[in-house]
Specification:
Length: 308
């Protein structure tokens, strides 16, 4: 019982840290947003499959799209959490912002989460005229678990292996044109070893109650082939979109080496020009080092380069 309670507390802290709540960052309040559509179903398998749409106050469109994917260890979080605050800054630069809920691991295990993100991407393209989206310029942006899902969406565009239910708008592509990954867990099988080498006391993943094991539905070392299918590195190909990866050296939830290794593997195939990896000295797991105005502006500059 104590072990289960500790795991639950750890998952809650993960959800708030990766979103910035522990740095005084409040959740997103959509009430002041003028051009919005809330709780739109993008599929019909689960009540969780809903998204919110926000359009800029100015400009005629069609608008390039930022898809905001929340973090929370695949087990907590919401589309109107603090992750959305950073994405909303894109409205000032003429981006539409779509924040997505997906099935959490307490409801369904992998690959339900990436299936949902892909269904949301197909919904955006299928309905681009109704909402004045630019269907040819879509980016995904996530932190922590959301960062890993963004990365997986980036390397698995139109990959048939992950073309599982929901099949809504199946005629549409789920490819994206840019990826922003903030401190995502890329390969859970290496996390414990990386923490041991770094000297940082992190949160063990090779146990039955870790967020990675709950995401897989079994302890990760019992299902290494399934973990490989959830690893964005498995699918890297020359035609993947450009990536911006950011990670803190003092992250005690996800080792910084996760992003360093991922960026190196991407660069080897995509080329260094398409992969930007920012290692933020002494930064922890999300928070002000990421969601400050200067850094968010840097993210939007990256998106401007490829989506405008």
């Amino acid at each position: 019982m104590k072990k289960q309670l500790a795991g639950a507390i750890a998952l809650f802290l993960l959800s708030v840290m990766c979103s910035g709540l522990l740095t005084g960052c409040a959740g997103a309040d959509a009430s002041a947003r003028q051009y919005k559509w809330l709780d739109i179903p993008y599929a019909n398998v689960s009540a969780s499959q809903k998204l919110d749409i926000y359009l800029p106050y100015e400009g005629k469109g069609p608008y390039p799209v930022i898809v905001s994917i929340h973090g929370g260890g695949y087990n907590t979080g919401d589309k109107v959490g603090p992750d959305l605050l950073s994405a909303w800054e894109g409205l000032k630069r003429g981006y539409a912002v779509v924040s997505v809920n997906y099935r959490l691991s307490g409801e369904a295990v992998f690959p339900a989460q990436i299936n949902d993100i892909k269904a949301a991407l197909r919904f955006i393209r299928a309905n681009h005229r109704e909402y004045n989206f630019d269907p040819d310029n879509i980016a995904v942006w996530g932190s922590s678990a959301g960062g890993a899902l963004a990365a997986l969406a980036g390397t698995t565009g139109d990959v048939q292996e992950l073309m599982a239910p929901p099949y809504d708008n199946i005629e549409q592509s789920d490819r994206v044109q840019a990826v922003v990954d903030w401190c995502g867990p890329i390969n859970p099988l290496t996390i414990d070893e990386q923490y041991a080498k770094s000297g940082i006391k992190g949160f063990k993943q090779n146990c039955v109650d870790s967020f990675s094991s709950k995401y897989m539905g079994k302890q990760i070392t019992q299902v290494p082939d399934l973990v490989k299918k959830a690893n964005p590195e498995t699918y890297i190909s020359w035609d993947d979109p450009p990536f911006l990866i950011q990670h803190g050296t003092a992250d005690n939830w996800i080792p910084v080496q996760q992003s360093i290794d991922f960026a190196a593997r991407l660069s080897a195939i995509l080329g260094k020009d398409k992969v930007q990896c920012d290692i933020i000295q002494d930064a922890g797991h999300g928070g002000k080092s990421f969601n400050n105005i200067e850094n968010v502006g840097k993210v939007l500059d990256f998106l401007d380069k490829y989506l405008k």
